[in-house]
Task: structure prediction
Amino acid sequence: MSGSMEFLLWTKGPLFNIALAIFAIGLMARLVEIFMLGRAPNYAEPRAHEWPAGLRTMLTRTVADPGTFQRAPFNVVVGWVWHLGFLTALLFFVPHVELIQGVLGFAWPALPNPVVDFATAITLLALIATLVHRLTHPVKRHISTIEDYLVWAVVFMVVLTGYLAYHRLVEPYPLALGMHILCAEILLIILPFTKLTHIFTTFIARWYNGAAFGRKGVQS
Amino acid sequence: MRKRPDKTLGESLRDHGLSRRGFLKLCATTASLMALPPSLAPAIAAALEQARRPSVIWLSFQECTGCTESLTRSHAPTLEDLIFDFISLDYHHTLQAASGEAAEAARFQAMEENKGQYLVIVDGSIPGPDANPGFSTVAGHSNYDILMETVEHAAAVIAVGTCAAFGGLPQARPNPTGAMSVMDLVRDKPVINVPGCPPIPMVITGVVAHYLVFGRLPELDAYHRPLAFYGQSIHDRCYRRPFYDKGLFAERFDDEGARQGWCLYRLGCKGPTTYNACATMKWNDGTSWPIEAGHPCLGCSEPKFWDAGGFYEPVSVPLTLGPTTLLGAGAAGGVIGGGLAAMARKQVKQDAATRQPVTVDELEQKL
Result:
């Protein structure tokens, strides 16, 4: 690997295969394990159906209730902003849509570049704000672990390198793009083994809680 | 053998009917070509006026002659022809092939007479020292031996074309001839790469002009390419760039976007990762260039361009990964997860089976 082009081809080739394989194996192993562990059979007669309550809770726990918003407005607003910005950039940037088409064999329409650019800039600012808040808020700081900072750093680096590459602020460009792909690969590799797994388990967990409460006929 | 004239470049140009005004225009163009300030044009004029023609030995190895075609058949007569007339091309494998032994003798004579002064231009890749030398020979000698022998007393080596600069097509997987680039083999001489498939004619003449004017080689990038020509990417100088920035893309070669001349990123354009001067200097006397003709850039001036993904695959698409790999890995993960869950269940059952209830009395006795 003598130059930036070789580096880019390495991240686009062998390393991408390895990263996606670790991601797919790790994620499927965790999900299948969670589903197969199951739970003890409940012999009590259900008071209501599980599914409507489960689906309702998937929605209600996604939108913060007024009490939560009043207690922690920063968490709610900034959390929403950066998650939406991140998803916009991840799923609707033209090169990402092409990548998804290449890997999965299907994709969806993309958003215009200026929209994605704006979302990315907002995401970067929001992520910086979350770190500052985490470091200055006494409770948050107390309960933060190394893993929290690692996950923040990896996510931030993915967005930052993507922004730098798009605006071509690092020369030569193959190095900038290679750095972005490398960061995304690190994210993919650690995803199944850190709290980043929530990307795939959050809605399952919300459904599970809602379904359990729904069965008992109580509000969740 | 042609005798080397002792005229300076200025005298030769005047003999060819080039006016003083024409000569200064040439110098100004050369200055702008090499991204030098216009104020240097008089200095270039003075230097070129006095310059002696350097001896040049042109070696052709595993190549298609496209680079030579590009240079010799460029729109004549222009700056590059003029400058080409004013180097002393003492040996050219391909052009002198019919001369046989006489040509080889000319090469040795040029090397002897200009020891330490001559330039070597290499065109084509070379089967490396560990490869079978029989893949490419000239006059019964292996390419490797000829290259090493010729560059030994050279002032500098110019690798013309992507094959000489980076290995190019012969080096593409599975590289059957063990092809290597000049840079891989020549370590103790200045090597300047002029990649492209073929390179723009003006670039090679620009490099030679720089050498004549300043007596040294131009500033190079990490891949030994002259920064003046390879300092900016195709994407950054592309006239279709505003469409990329707006997010307007041709999705097929026959759609409305293609007709409107929108960005070719989604059709596989390698402009974002390719450093060359096509977008500004263009081809065929500034007539057009691939993207202007509606075709994505292939990235021909970059290392490994043959193996860097399909020509019609966008830059962001991974090289080898497809749905099957992902499904396979997912299935493997499912099996591992299933195994872990089964083991955990078994453990729970075992624990339940071997559980030994403890009463409060028993615990108190232990205390």
